[in-house]
Amino acid sequence: MTRPTLAEALFSPRAVALIGASDDAGKTAGRPLHFLRKHGYTGPIYPINPNRATVQGERAYARLADAPGPVDHAYILVNTPAVEAAVAACAEAGVAVATVLASGFAEMGEEGRARQHRMVEIARAHGLRLVGPNSLGVVSTTTPLALTANAAFSIDALPHGRHAVLSQSGSLIGTLMSRGVARGMGFGKLISVGNEADLSVGEIGAALAEDPGTDAFLLFLETIRAREEMERFATAAHCAGKPIIALKLGRSDLGQALAVSHTGAMVGSDAAVDAFFRRHGIIRVDHLETLLEAAPLVVGRKPLASAAHRSVGVIATTGGGAAMVVDRLGSLGVEVAPPSPATLEKLRAVGVPAQSGPIVDVTLAGTRYEVMRPALDLMMAAPEFVLVLATIGSSAQFRPELAVKPIVDCARERKPLAVFLTPQADEMLRLLAQHGIAAFRTPEACADAIAAYLAWREPTGPANVSSNALARAVALLRNARGELLNERQSLAVFAALGVPVVPSLAFDPAAPPPALPFPFPVAAKILSPDLTHKTDVGGVALEIADASELWKRAQDMAAALRHRHPEARIAGVLAQPMERGIGEALLGYRLDAQAGPVVTVGMGGTLAEIYRDFAVRTAPISPAEATEMISEVRGFAALRGYRGRPRGDLEALAKAVAALSTFAELRSPAVLEAEINPIVVKPAGQGVVAVDGVIRLAPAQSSETQSAAAHAKPGRRHSSTRHS
């Protein structure tokens, strides 16, 4: 018997073994056998139980080696201490895939991680692939296969569908299935991936990218593991025209408060994950309801062009119901626009009363098919809208022929159509789902789905990176000692990457400073590998007028540091010319444990952190992508020439952001975190100049230690105004 593909072994195995199967169908270890037969699996099932001759009426076998035929997929149901031996038995028997139900592995600390590592090593040595541990199983409604211990699959029949669910939470596959039933929705495949000790969401998704029975992927994520595999999955799904919709937990991340830079404090893992999803064309939603209901908005469609207008049109039989969605859309930054004069004229011609405002309310015209259908057609055809929202009131529950039937009859292919039904109208939700129309039961989910669709982007290709610039930066980084580079060292690396930096001269405060290669006034800053809060200890002096004042201020700063921190090493004092411009920006880079390298731009100083006003992308990026980031920062309005103010050199700023992002190409030494704060923005055509910065390197150069170091939480660094 030929070895199956990964997708075949997972979702359509020719034979299944249940290691540790219970004779009691009500017990966790007994459910998989019961569900397999209940839902129609027709292949051989081999219960492995050394204590029984039969299990639930099926012949049982004492050992997997005793099974009369080869096994594609084994579900390991034994307790944690026995899992390792069961995995070894599967490996020796040539099983293609084994799913592990038990917990007590990497999620339980060092001992559990060691146990999980041993299990994976056994499997890899024999070509056995593992799902889990902590997996509640695998389900396919097309095979059919209900290889799961999730009690929700006690349902009478599996609802069929064309969406694949990949969940890091075991219970969520049952939750989504049961909630989908109420809406008339089913799924083609569902899998609980658990700890992803071996098979990840990304690898499983990529294996299904060409599956003819899958139109879209729904992901429930608690973190991102195996980032590169997730990237390959996203690429394969995009090439196959199958959208990925993700609900990921973790919108808050208080642990970032101890990061070394403002960037680390601002751009927690969740903001980095947003950037990761954006780069790879993954649609992120915020509500479980949205994950269930949004797919019809995107299946069979492509993301809007980046330059496309993104106005939403609204038609309703209940103004109040529509207002609930419109209000939520406004808070999400979505533009809801009124029809154009041309569209309004056409609407009046079909009986819709004259009105102003963004909601086309047909209530006064009477909720009836002969008004609603042509009005819908006109809204769908209107070029000013990229998406139409139809909100239906009580008629959805009691007179669906008046307002819901026109929606069903309306041609869906022209543009996305979202429907919010204000009453509890489960039958109509099922009807709309059957016709591939995105229908929502809450205004929050409806608005969430619309905003997610409008934010959906084509995946971004790799940016061009200068190999010469990288080589210069690597040479400087390798000569640096320690993990935290001081300001002088950091600015030198930034300059090597192509970021314009302020001239600097370092000198020993014990002797008069040498002649400066730049004019006064200058700034002076203490240099110490043990100090990241220069302003807190009086380590910064501004507007120094001459050489004598420079030496005096340098001696004062050194004395103050020795008094406050006698253990701190002093590497000198750094003198720089005072730089002035029309604004300041913060540029940041960090290696995120989930999303990988990300680059940030925001307002300079502490303002970006205070106001949470910044833009993030996964790195590296091109100057064009950096320009798009800059346009998203509200605080840069003044630099864009607001109310006649001089325009800043945003083109030079974009080039600096792109240059900083090339840290993503470095593997050894790896940069965990870097920040320029501030970079002074001069008037248009006069460039930008970085006046302060910091770089933190990984303590070791292996990928494992780099990932661990990304979680380190050193003391924070603060900046003052122009020089810190």
Strand-helix topology:
Elements lengths: L5 H6 L4 E4 L11 H8 L6 E4 L5 E2 L2 E2 L13 E4 L3 H14 L3 E4 L9 H16 L3 E3 L5 E4 L4 E4 L14 E5 L2 H13 L6 E4 L8 H8 L7 E6 L5 H13 L4 E5 L13 H5 L2 H11 L3 E3 L2 H6 L1 H4 L13 E5 L2 H13 L9 H9 L9 E3 L7 H13 L5 E6 L2 H4 L1 H10 L7 E5 L4 H9 L3 E3 L2 H13 L11 H13 L4 E2 L1 H11 L7 E3 L14 E6 L12 E5 L2 H18 L7 E6 L5 E10 L3 E8 L3 H5 L2 E5 L4 H10 L17 H12 L9 E11 L6 E3 L2 E5 L5 H7 L15
Parallel strand pairs: 1-2, 1-5, 5-6, 6-7, 10-11, 10-12, 12-13, 13-14, 15-16, 15-17, 17-18, 18-19
Antiparallel strand pairs: 3-4, 8-9, 8-11, 20-30, 21-24, 22-23, 22-24, 25-26, 25-28, 26-27, 28-29, 28-30
Helix pairs in contact: 3-4, 6-7, 12-18, 14-16, 19-20, 23-24
- Major beta sheet, specifics? 7 strands, mixed
Helix content: 25-40%
CATH superfamily of the domain at 1-153: NAD(P)-binding Rossmann-like Domain
Give the quaternary arrangement of the chains: single chain
Cα-atom Rg, whole angstroms?
A: 30 Å
Distance linking N and C termini = 69 Å
Shape: flat
From the 3D coordinates, which CATH architecture of the domain at 1-153 would you assign?
A: 3-Layer(aba) Sandwich
Spatial sequence of strands, sheet with the most strands: 9-8-11-10-12-13-14
Q: Find the count of extended strands (DSSP E, 2+ residues).
A: 30
Number of helices: 25
CATH topology of the domain at 1-153: Rossmann fold
Task: Please state roughly what percent of the residues sit in beta strands, choosing from under 5%, 5-15%, 15-25%, 25-35%, 35-45% or over 45%.
Answer: 15-25%
Mean pLDDT: 90
Low-confidence stretches: 254-266, 701-724
What is the CATH top level name of the domain at 1-153? Alpha Beta
Structural class designation: alpha/beta
